[in-house]
Amino acid sequence: RSNQLTGTIPESIGNMTNLETLSLYRNQLTGTIPETIGNMTNLISLMLHMNQLTGTIPEAIGNMTNLETLYLWDNNLTGTIPATIGDLTNLETLDLNNNELTGAIPITIGNLTSLKHLILYSNQLSGTIPEALGNLTKLTVLELIFNKLSGAIPDTIGNLTNLRDLVLGGNNLTGTIPETIGNLTNLTILYLGGNNLTGTIPETIGNLKKLTSLGLYQNQLTGEIPEAIGNLSRLEYLSLFENQLTGRIPKTIGNLTKLASLKLSKNQLRGMVPASLCNLPYLQTIELSDNNL
């Protein structure tokens, strides 16, 4: 790892059937991941990230059923995520970010009930977010930002009560923010910005009392900012700009004593700016332009 290795991964690597860790990351490896890698059935950790690998993720990867860590991020991998990935039931971390992967997220990912980190951002994944993700109740990090995902956020997301980071921005998601999001009481980061979400901000968002960053910007959200947002006493960043929000800025925002950034511009907010905003000691950025204030 972290050498300056060049060339390809040889087919003969599949002969190392007793190996438990294969770490070739941060090199300049090119070519494809050989199918023979599926013979390495004792492998627990496979780290090929930060190379220049091309081609597809081999289906034979599903044979590596002892795998707990799979890092293929920051390569030039194409094609779909193979359905056989659902056979890796001991997997705890799956990180495929920053590749050129296409197609849908396979439903079989819902079989990975040991998974704690699912990181697929900055690809070209399409289709919907599978409801089966709701099976992954040990998940702490779910990052799908900057893909081409469409459809609604499934209600089953509310099953993921250990989730700390939920990052679904920069897609083409539609429908409403599910009420069940209020079940995710361990969330610290919630980013749904840069989609086509409609409807109101659910009152249940007030349950997320560990939240430090809330980004719902650049959607088509309507209705008022819920008073319950004032319950988020750890919030540092609140971005609701470029929506169609109406009504007044709730006075309860004055309860957010750790707030450093408040971005509400380009909505249809009206009335007076609450005086309580003047009491926020850490507020550095406030953007309220293009409203009816």
Write out key terms for the chains shown.
elongated, 293 residues, 16 strands, twelve-stranded parallel beta sheet, mainly beta, two-stranded parallel sheet
Fold and architecture overview:
- With 293 residues, the protein is mostly beta strands.
- 0% of the residues lie in helices and 15% in strands.
- It has strands at residues 6-7, 21-23, 28-29, 45-47, 69-71, 93-95, 117-119, 141-143, 150-151, 165-167, 172-173, 189-191, 213-215, 237-239, 261-263, 285-287.
- The strands form three sheets. A twelve-stranded parallel sheet has the order 2-4-5-6-7-8-10-12-13-14-15-16, with no helix packed on it. Strands 1-3 form a two-stranded parallel ribbon. The chain has a two-stranded parallel sheet with strand order 9-11.
- It is elongated and about 70 Å long.
- The termini are far apart.
- The mean pLDDT is 97.
